[in-house]
Design brief:
It contains seven helices and 14 strands. The strands form four sheets. Strands 3-7-4-8-9-10 form a six-stranded mixed sheet, sandwiched between helices. Strands 11-14-13-12 form a four-stranded mixed sheet, with no helix packed on it. A two-stranded antiparallel sheet has the order 1-2.
Length: 338
Amino acid sequence: MNTPCRRTMMAACAIAVAITLLPGCTTGRKALHTADFLPPTPHYDDATQWYITDRHADADIFYITSTETGDYPHADGTPCHYADTYIDSLRNPILGEMEGVDRLLSGALNFYSPYYRQCSMQTFTSDSTIAVRMPVATNDIKKAFRHYLKHLNNQRPFILAGYSQGAMILLELLKEMDKQTYSRMIAAYAVGVSIPKEVANAIPHLIPAQTADDLGVTICYNSAKNIAGTIPIFDNNTIAINPVNWRTDGQEATLITEPSPAKPLDEQKKDTMTVKLDRHTNYLFVEGFTDQDYVLPFIGKDGNLHTREIWLYRQQLHDNIALRTARFLATRNRTSRK
């Protein structure tokens, strides 16, 4: 992997949350019903609010980024809890994730990822701040997805994918998705999120993946070294599949790969890991991971592998996206010939 790609995946998998003093949010407004100060609203007819790679493919990936933002002060000292999509210093970590995920997962597919006023990492320290702030981020992505469907997608099949905060928002898109749009969804990859039973039951189009090539399904998983590495924000998850063997029955799978996105591949040994889906917690427990992991600020702990959810399984995800897409396109072509 070349140096730029390593750099972008470090942004994607280590989740940048450095808190910097910025003159941002000066053109924002007060959020309704809260004291939060909002950055300006993204306009999705503005090309600067998108990262797009058009490979002239027959199918797309629509990707929602994870949390790359920490709290930072407005010019008058008021804290901002959302990314400003017009300030380069806040956009750059998000761009790094977009570039890294595109290079690792897309293959030959087109890639669309919108900038949005994602919530800061501090948001996820309590249920109350999540409830107050997430609607801002979610509504931005809803607008972006509508724009994508109307102006960019051109009726192509698509993969819906989101990581962490992006996966939380993905579930909201799936909840509101109409049948015609869902009929073009190859699969949804909700990576690093908890889907409790009541949430799953409220989403008619949420069908848990059972195999490597079922279609219209949702793929979900969370990883830790062991039970001590589980964290409360991912408790009560009811949907999980092992992305190494694409099984849901707890059978172990062997994963051999480089453990760190931050080091050159030729300067690290591959880990031989055992990945097992624990049916009691619906976590993937990963034995044999040797790297010193980056611990999420505020909500993380040693032994949790949330920041590695894409990196560790990058080849499996890349291949699986290609497999499901090929099957979807073949099925559609057979149907159209009848």
